[in-house]
Amino acid sequence: MSSKMLPCPSGSESGRESPGDSRVPPYFYNLRPYQLEIATAVMDSIRKKRGLTFSVEISRQGGKNELSARLEHYLLTIKIGGKDTLVKCSPTFNPQTLISMRRLMDLLKESYSQRLSKESGHIVRLGDARAVFLSADESSNVVGNTASLLLEIDEAQDVSKEKFTRDFKPMGAAYNVTTALYGTTWDDFSLLEEVKQTNLELERKDGVKRHFRYDWQEVARYNPHYLAYVEGERQRLGECHPLFMTQYRLLPVHGGGGFLSVQQRSQLQGEHARMRHREQGKLYVAGIDIAGEAEEEANAFLQVAKPRQDSTVMTIGELDFSACDEIRKQPAIRIVEHYWWNGKKHTELYARMVDILRNVWHCRSIVVDATGMGQPVSSFLKGALGSKVSPFTFTEKSKSELGFNLLAAVNSGRLKMYAGDGSPEYQEFWEEIEKAKSQYRPSQTMNFYVDPSQGHDDFLMSLALVVETASGYSPREARGR
Prior knowledge:
Blueprint: H1 33-47, E1 53-58, H2 64-78, E2 85-90, H3 93-112, E3 116-119, E4 123-126, E5 129-135, E6 150-153, H4 161-168, E7 178-183, H5 191-206, E8 211-214, H6 216-220, H7 224-237, H8 242-247, H9 262-268, E9 283-289, E10 311-320, E11 332-342, H10 346-360, E12 365-369, H11 374-385, E13 389-392, H12 396-411, E14 415-416, H13 424-435, E15 437-441, E16 445-449, H14 458-471, H15 475-478
Parallel strand pairs: 1-7, 1-8, 2-5, 2-6, 6-7, 9-12, 11-14, 12-13
Antiparallel strand pairs: 3-4, 4-5, 9-10, 10-11, 15-16
Helix pairs in contact: 2-3, 10-11, 12-14
């Protein structure tokens, strides 16, 4: 998309509907055209008691929550004297449900503070009309609530299909209630994606629009600040980064594929030579993946179970702040050396690792795998090298963030591997990179790994830990003594 703003098709200069437009209810003033299109369709279904189910995909921070709050505001206002109820659920009560409640309360306080009240910590009441806010967490007990005005599912890509079908959808049965599911896309198996595909099929049959999709380029037509921000994210993450694809381009990811594409592997390949020791004036960091020795890793959900002859891998990276990216000021990272110890006991490696990190490379920052058997190793290194050492514990969430950061570094061209030297380390590194797979999970999390039946992922994890340690190092520190 061009960096120039496209002309607004209607309304004011910002693309918002003008208060002078008699077709627009006052409650929907200031909505952008794409928001107004959704609001009009939802209200038409409610007024005509059609009981339609809508799926709404709007780019992250594109205004879906504002739209939802204004719909709720309008419905409670016109039903202020009736005992009607709308129900809205979010994947979590705190913070998502509480944020939705606060947003609606703020809107209603502007005109109806005298008749506005809050009940039981999760109900907003305006006169006799109510908005009930619930958690869609698997453990939440929500059965017994009834929706007579509208049923809303926020961040529907993170809500369990079983929970929605079993507990929430029946809430509108008595009134053939209209249902709206909001969110951004994720993978092929989410609730939002399933409803979307059903809606698209129904649209082909009867021509009634049920699915609404507005990616970042549509939102940016009406907000130049948004355009600048997302352009920055595109540069930082890369066009094909899973988060950019799903949150802004609204394209689902496909799980089970390769972690790095052929193009991304090409970007990772550098032209600089491998090094055996530091150069004066250069800054070096390290990422260390610790072998599991004879233990079998218990974290099966991470798919990092390791066989007995696991390896400890230390990756040395050179940071170049003169080649910072312009968005987050992160340095370029050149992988300059690998140390690969296969089948060695940790106690045999302590003195060697300390000597390499302190005397050979003078590493300024070191991130060490502190999961399971890695914990005593990281503690020893921290005791020997001090605050330069940061332990990293692999959890589902932390590993997901590690993978996303690694992808961002590759996509932006900041991360480069040394040129081929025919060494076993070079060959093992690229074998793991080529075999690495990705798996996408709910709540915008991912896993990356090498299937244990196909080999190891020690070099892959060590590489990701180098990116982690680089992300916590600032140019100011780099220009220190």
